[in-house]
C-alpha cells in the first residue's frame, strides 16, 4: 500500500478517545431551536441550573439569555424552562462528529476524520412553564393555524391581470377545421355521377376510400350512388373493389383485360 493510500485510510478511522465521556440528549421546543439557529456563534444562549435534594431526583432548569430573547423582539417566547430527565438503560446511543479538511486552492478534501464525542447517558425533554407568556404564544399559534389558506376579499377597483383561459384560440380553430372536414356536404347526384365516371375512365377498379377522397362525399351517400351504377367484387383478384356495371362501361378494347386480369386497377383494400 502506498503512503498516500495509507494516509487516507488512517484519516478515515474513527477516533474513540472520548468514547467514555457521558453526554445528554436534549429535546427542545421548535421555537427555541429556531432562535438558536438565528443566533451568532459567539453569544451565550442560556444558563443551565441543576439542583439536587437528598432522596429526590435532580431538578434541571434552563433560562434563555437576553441575547437569544432579543434576536426577534416581535416573537415573544418563554424564558424559563424545566427539563424532564430520563436515564438511558436499555439501549446504547452515541454522538459522532465528522470533520473534513480542505485548502483554499483545492476544494477536494485532503483528509476526512470521524470522532465519537461521547455516549448518551441521559435524555432530557425541555418544557416551558405554563405562564402568561407561554399561553399567549400558544393562543397566537392556534389563531394562525385556524386561518384559512384562501380568503375572500372585496375589490374596490378593476384588477387587470392575465386570467387563465379555458381553451386557446388555435385549439378552437383546429377543432372547427376538423369538424368542417368531417361533415362533407352532399353534392347533386348528377355531379357525383360525373366525378365517378371520370374516375373510372382512368382506372377500372377503386376501393371506397379512394372514391371518398375523389368525390368528397359522405360514405353512406356515396354507397347509395355506387350501388346504382357499380358492382362490388366479393372475390379475388379484385376483392372489396368497385367497378362500373357492364351497361356503363366503355373501355377501349386493349384496356379491358389481359390474360391474368385487368390492366389498370387501384389495389388498396376496401374498409367497407
Automatic annotation (TrEMBL):
Signal peptide: none annotated. Residues 21-99 form the TFIIF beta subunit N-terminal domain. Its main location: nucleus. Keywords: DNA-binding, Nucleus, Transcription, Transcription regulation. GO terms for molecular function: DNA binding. TFIIF is a general transcription initiation factor that binds to RNA polymerase II and helps to recruit it to the initiation complex in collaboration with TFIIB. Belongs to the TFIIF beta subunit family. This is General transcription factor IIF subunit 2.
Amino acid at each position: 500500500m502506498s503512503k498516500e493510500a495509507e494516509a487516507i485510510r488512517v484519516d478515515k478511522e474513527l477516533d474513540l478517545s472520548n468514547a467514555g465521556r457521558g453526554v445528554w440528549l436534549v429535546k427542545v421546543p421548535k421555537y427555541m431551536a429556531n432562535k438558536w439557529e438565528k443566533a451568532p456563534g459567539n453569544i451565550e444562549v442560556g444558563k443551565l441550573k441543576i439542583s439536587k435534594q437528598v432522596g429526590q431526583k435532580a431538578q434541571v432548569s434552563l433560562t434563555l439569555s437576553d441575547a437569544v430573547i432579543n434576536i426577534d423582539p416581535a416573537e415573544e417566547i418563554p424564558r424559563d424552562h424545566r427539563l424532564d430527565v430520563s436515564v438511558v438503560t436499555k439501549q446504547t446511543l452515541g454522538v459522532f462528529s465528522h470533520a473534513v479538511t480542505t485548502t483554499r486552492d483545492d476544494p477536494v478534501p485532503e483528509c476526512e476524520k470521524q470522532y465519537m464525542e461521547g455516549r448518551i447517558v441521559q435524555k432530557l425533554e425541555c418544557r416551558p412553564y405554563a405562564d402568561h407568556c407561554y399561553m399567549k404564544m400558544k393562543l397566537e399559534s392556534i389563531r394562525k393555524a385556524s386561518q384559512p389558506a384562501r380568503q375572500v376579499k372585496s375589490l374596490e377597483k378593476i384588477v387587470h391581470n392575465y386570467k387563465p383561459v379555458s381553451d386557446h384560440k388555435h385549439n378552437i380553430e383546429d377543432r372547427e377545421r376538423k369538424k368542417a372536414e368531417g361533415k362533407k356536404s352532399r353534392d347533386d347526384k348528377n355531379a357525383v355521377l360525373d366525378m365517378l365516371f371520370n374516375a373510372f375512365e382512368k382506372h377500372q377498379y377503386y376501393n371506397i376510400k379512394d372514391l371518398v377522397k375523389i368525390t368528397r362525399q359522405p360514405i353512406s351517400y356515396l354507397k347509395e350512388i355506387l350501388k346504382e351504377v357499380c358492382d362490388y367484387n366479393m372475390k379475388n383478384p379484385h376483392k372489396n373493389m368497385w367497378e362500373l356495371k357492364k351497361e356503363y362501361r366503355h373501355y377501349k378494347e386493349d384496356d379491358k383485360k389481359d390474360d391474368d386480369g385487368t390492366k389498370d386497377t387501384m389495389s388498396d383494400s376496401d374498409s367497407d
